[in-house]
C-alpha cells in the first residue's frame, strides 16, 4: 500500500517511460485508442468472444512491465506459473516501488516484511507471510508449493526455508523507504483505513498459457507502518488469490483486512463457477461486500481482478482509481476498472 504520493509519481514516471519504449517497438496501444485489440478486449470483457491464450493480467500500472516479462515466457510456450513468478519479479526488484519487494515501506518497527502466494490450475498452492530479507517472496512461495508438504510458511521459518533453497539474504530497506519511515515516526500516526485516493499497490497477476493452464500470484510489502507481524490478504489463499483451472482465477488489491473478511478471491471464483462472467463476478462480490459492511466500508478500497478459464477478464473496485494491465494478442494496455461508489 502506497501512503506516499511521491512514490506513486515515481511509479507513473517509470510506466510512462516503459510505454514510450513499447511505442517505439510499435506494438503498444493504450486504453482509449481505437484498436482492434481494444475492440477484442471489449468483446472479451463482455464475454462475447473466447480469447485464445496466452493472456496475462495484473493489478496497477506497474503491471505493464511485469506483464511484459511474463509475456516473454508465455509466447515461447512457457508454463503460466513460471510466467507469473517471472513477471512479478520485475516490481519486486524495483527499489522505486514502495509497495512490493525491495524498497517496500517497512512496518512501524522499521522492518520490511513481505507477503506472497502462488496457485496453479490444479489447486496446488504455496505461500509465505511476514518474510524478511528476501527480495523475491513469490519465488519462495513457489518453492513452498513445490518442495514442501505445506502451503504456508511464516516469519523466521519462511526465511530459514528461503535460505536453504539458495535465496540471498539482503537488506530490503532502501534509504528512501527508511527516510519515509523516520518521517512517519515523528507523529507515528497510524490509520489502518488509509485514504483510498493514494492507492494500494500489491501486484496480483493471473496468466493463461498456450496449453490453457491458468496460474496466479500475489506479492506485496503490505501496509506501510503496520504492526510487526501483521499479515494482509495477499499471502492468504482464497483472500488475495484463488485459482481453479476448471473455472478461473481472481486476485485483489486494497485494504487486506477487508478482503480477508469476504474471502474475496475465492468468492469471485465461486461466483464464476455459478455462471457469472469474470466481470459480473467481481461486481457481485463488491456489491455484496458493501451491502454487508455498509458504513464500515466507507473510505476503504477493495479492488478485484479476475480471469475465467478462457481468458476473459473482469475488474471492479469499491472506489475509483483501480487500474490494471492487460496483455493479449501481443498488445499491452492499461485499463481503468469500473467501480461502485463515487468519491
Ligand atoms: N492488500 C495489501 C495488504 O493489505 C495492500 C495493497 O493491496 O496495497 O497488505
List the helices and strands and how they pair.
Layout: H1 5-24, H2 36-45, E1 55-59, H3 63-75, H4 80-92, E2 114-119, E3 125-131, H5 137-147, E4 152-154, H6 155-164, H7 175-187, E5 203-208, E6 214-220, E7 241-244, E8 248-254, H8 256-261, H9 264-273, H10 278-293, E9 302-308, E10 313-317, E11 323-328, E12 331-336, E13 338-339
According to CATH, what is the topology of the domain at 86-319? Glutamine Phosphoribosylpyrophosphate, subunit 1, domain 1
What binds here, in terms of ligands, is: aspartic acid
Number of strands: 13
User: Radius of gyration, Cα only, in angstroms?
Assistant: 18 Å
Give a brief outline of the structure.
This protein has helices at 5-24, 36-45, 63-75, 80-92, 137-147, 155-164, 175-187, 256-261, 264-273, 278-293; strands at residues 55-59, 114-119, 125-131, 152-154, 203-208, 214-220, 241-244, 248-254, 302-308, 313-317, 323-328, 331-336, 338-339.
Polypeptide structure, described:
The protein has 343 residues and is of the alpha+beta class. It has a domain of 234 residues: Glutamine Phosphoribosylpyrophosphate, subunit 1, domain 1 (4-Layer Sandwich), CATH 3.60.20. It is 36% helix and 21% strand. It is built from 10 helices and 13 strands. The protein has an 8-stranded mixed β-sheet with strand order 4-3-2-6-5-1-11-12. A hairpin with a 5-residue loop joins strand 2 and strand 3. The longest helix is centred in the first third of the chain and has 20 residues. The protein is globular, with a radius of gyration of 18 Å. It starts with a helix and ends with a strand. The N terminus is likely disordered. The structure holds aspartic acid. Aspartic acid (ASP) binds next to strand 8. Aspartic acid binds next to strand 8.
Amino acid at each position: 500500500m502506497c501512503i506516499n504520493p511521491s512514490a506513486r509519481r515515481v511509479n507513473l514516471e517509470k510506466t510512462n517511460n516503459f510505454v514510450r519504449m513499447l511505442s517505439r517497438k510499435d506494438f503498444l496501444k493504450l486504453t482509449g485508442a481505437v484498436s482492434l485489440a481494444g475492440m477484442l478486449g471489449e468483446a472479451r470483457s463482455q464475454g462475447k468472444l473466447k480469447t485464445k491464450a496466452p493472456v496475462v493480467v495484473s493489478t496497477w500500472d506497474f503491471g505493464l512491465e511485469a506483464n511484459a516479462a511474463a509475456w516473454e515466457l508465455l509466447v515461447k510456450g512457457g508454463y503460466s506459473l513460471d510466467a507469473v513468478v517471472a513477471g512479478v519479479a520485475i516490481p519486486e526488484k524495483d527499489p522505486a516501488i514502495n509497495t512490493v519487494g525491495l524498497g517496500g515501506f517497512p512496518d512501524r518497527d522499521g522492518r520490511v516484511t513481505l507477503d506472497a502466494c502462488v496457485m496453479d490450475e490444479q489447486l496446488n498452492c504455496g505461500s509465505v507471510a511476514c518474510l524478511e530479507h528476501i527480495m523475491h517472496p513469490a519465488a519462495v512461495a513457489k518453492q513452498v508449493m513445490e518442495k514442501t508438504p505445506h502451503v504456508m510458511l511464516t516469519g523466521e521459518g519462511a526465511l530459514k526455508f528461503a535460505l536453504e533453497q539458495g535465496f540471498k539474504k539482503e537488506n530490503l530497506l532502501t534509504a528512501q523507504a527508511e527516510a519515509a519511515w523516520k518521517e512517519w515516526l515523528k507523529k507515528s500516526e497510524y490509520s489502518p483505513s488509509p485514504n483510498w485516493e493514494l492507492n494500494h499497490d500489491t501486484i496480483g497477476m493471473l496468466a493463461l498459457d498456450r496449453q490453457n493452464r491458468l496460474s496466479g500470484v500475489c506479492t506485496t510489502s503490505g501496509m506501510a507502518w503496520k504492526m510487526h507481524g501483521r499479515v494482509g490478504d495477499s499471502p492468504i489463499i482464497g483472500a488475495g488469490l484463488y485459482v481453479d483451472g476448471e473455472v478461473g482465477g481472481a486476485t485483489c488489491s486494497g485494504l487486506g483486512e477487508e478482503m480477508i473478511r469476504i474471502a474475496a478471491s475465492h468468492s469471485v471464483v465461486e461466483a464464476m463457477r455459478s455462471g457469472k462472467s469474470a466481470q459480473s463476478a467481481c461486481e457481485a462480490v463488491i456489491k455484496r461486500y458493501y451491502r454487508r459492511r455498509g458504513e464500515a466500508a466507507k473510505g476503504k478500497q477493495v479492488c478485484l481482478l479476475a480471469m475465467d478459464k478462457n481468458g476473459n477478464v473482469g475488474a471492479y473496485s469499491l472506489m475509483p482509481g483501480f487500474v490494471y494491465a492487460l496483455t493479449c494478442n501481443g498488445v499491452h494496455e492499461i485499463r481503468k476498472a469500473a467501480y461502485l461508489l463515487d468519491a
